Amino acid sequence: SLILYSIVIVASCNNVTQLRFGPYLLADGDIFVTIDPNISSRVHRPVVDRERVIVPEYPWEGTMHFYGSVVNVGPQEDRIYYACNVGAQVNRTRAPDGPSSVCVAVSTDKGETWTKPMLPIIAYQNWTETNMLFQSQGGWIDSVMRLPIGMPAPKGTPPDTQYLLVFDDGYTNPTFRGMQLATSPDGFHFQPLQPIPSLPSSFADTSVSLVYDPVIDQFVAFGREDGYPDQHPSQRCGTETPDYNMKSVRAVKRAASSEGLTNFNVSSHIPFAFDTLDPQCLDIYNTAASVVSSGARVWSAIPTERSYIAFPSAFQHYGFAVNDGILEIRFAFSREGEAFRYIGGDRGGYIARGIGAAHPPSFDLFNFSDGNILARWDAAITYMYAGVLENPNDGTMQMYHFGQQGSHARQDGTDRGLFGIGRATIYQHRWMSIGCDVPQPGGPNSTARVLTLLSHPILLPLCMSKSETLTLTLNADVSVGGFISFAFLDNLTQKHIPGFSHNDTLPFTGNRLSSPLLLKSGAIANLSEPSLSEGLRLQVQLLPPARMYAWEFHCLNVSKV
User: Fold this and answer.
1) How many helices (H) and strands (E) does the chain have?
2) What pLDDT is recorded for position 3?
């Protein structure tokens, strides 16, 4: 069969939810109005490679500390853009350790191996060729993004632009601390964009993630703003001396481009910040926000769906050092990119730090061990790079993160220990799920009880041709003995649509990334039937153990099925 395009649920109008293109990640049941209390949401953690995939090799990689991005360039090439600084040390009173450059590593085998291309762009001492592509004047390199592949450039994008680099020069000039951009036709040669985007200097504070939102057809930037009130202002940051009390921390701010890349409007609200359930002196280090969608704008009147995922690093400041501490990645989700939330209240480390020392008792050098166990290379710091790489060959998605044995600033200017870039792998769109793992007793013989979810009123999309039929696929893991069953109800009568009740459709079983909705006859369920053209509701019945990760609607060319 030939999949022409895929569709998914989005924002509602007059209490009826229309459908859009792209994967719909299931989280907290926000599409469901009725949920059995035994059904829960869960965050799923990836498999993390024990060893680093990229290590420092050259003198301009004295540190690979701070930020980076992963970018798909095409079917046969992926890239990692990472900050690389000559200076290898940072003392606790001076944060920047010299002009920051962006370095690049390339993979042509879906992340199995990475090489550093030597290019005649930026020289270093006697090296006429390096893998450095761009250098700031004293600030930070934040992130790199690729414009949608195979689609017209978003409005206001400069001619020949395919890549955007975010950086700042706030260390040398505070007026440039707001986000700055550089453009490139090939992802190697970057030129600063003029004029500088209209953002306040407090917006950037480094760590800016820039994404393109295909639904609103705008670029969206997530910065880190100073001055967000600490939720525990009367408490101390630590027990060590000198006593240190942070009066404010950083929070995530959102800005969207009103036209082109130079006019950004900053939202008044805070999309994400730590709260009273977190300890005092917990600070946002970076957002690492990404958009999950079908990958391009769609010419149809119904635009592509998208979801936002973010991996904010929690920065726990030490009580004795203002700008030092440990960092650990968390996971947050947003449907529209306006407000991020934890899934199922999960605030645990998404990519946990490795075994080893975490809280030094003094300014003494780490011994980088835990008893007789040598501390792993990411024992004190983990933070995620922006972007996700998809491997269609095995149905996985790769995320890349920075790790370091030593704490954030190495408060006494001593060695950082081992550091580098690691990889974490998860199955396609399986960051989170909704479902139940424990069978619930019910009935006189204590047989397992079927759990039910009922959606808000919805409208199915229309395929563009009579030769197309609308179908649905589900990404789910159903253990032996469980099932997931889909049915459609008339929104007015609340009765099952004839031919689409639980008695008509075949339940989902097994562990599959894309399982089609079938009728019990074995045929693919045709959701283009006229009886489904009006307002209806989706009813899901679930017999644990079973979890749903995502679903999509597809238009198939029936002449080729």
Assistant:
1) 1, 41
2) 29
Using only C-alpha atoms, the chain has a radius of gyration, in whole angstroms, of: 25
Tokens of 539: 């009813």
The single-letter code of the amino acid at 349 is: G
- Among 270, 185, 282, which Cα is nearest to 232's? 282
CA 60 to CA 116: how far, in whole Å?
Answer: 13
Q: In whole angstroms, what is the distance from residue 555 CA to residue 552 CA? A: 10
Contacts of 498 (CB under 8 A, 6+ apart): 531
Burial degree of 51 (CB within 10 A; 0-12, 13-18, 19+): exposed
Fill in the amino acid letter for 314: A
Q: Which residues, in sequence order, are CB contacts of 202 under 8 Å at separation 6+?
A: 177, 178, 225, 226, 227
Q: Which tokens sit at 219?
A: 């670029």
465's CB contacts (< 8 A; 6+ apart) are: 557
Collapsed DSSP state (helix, strand, coil) of residue 402: strand
Candidates 424, 410, 451, 473; CA nearest to 65 is 410
Helix (H, G, I), strand (E, B) or coil at 202: helix
Residue 406 to residue 367: CA distance in whole angstroms: 10
**C-alpha dihedral, 46 to 43 to 143 to 412, nearest 10°:** -80
Q: Note the pLDDT tens digit of each residue in 328-386.
A: 999 999 988 999 999 999 999 999 888 875 555 443 335 565 566 677 888 888 999 99
**What would the mean pLDDT of 237-250 be, rounded to a whole number?**
55
Euclidean distance between CA atoms 450 and 482, whole angstroms: 9
Q: How is the beta sheet containing 451-455 ordered, strand by strand?
A: 32-35, 451-455, 536-543, 483-490
Q: Rounded CA gap, 435 and 511, in Å? A: 14
Confidence label for 197 from pLDDT (cuts 50, 70 and 90):
confident
Cβ atoms of residues 530 and 486 within 8 Å: no
Partners of residue 141 on adjacent β-strands: 167
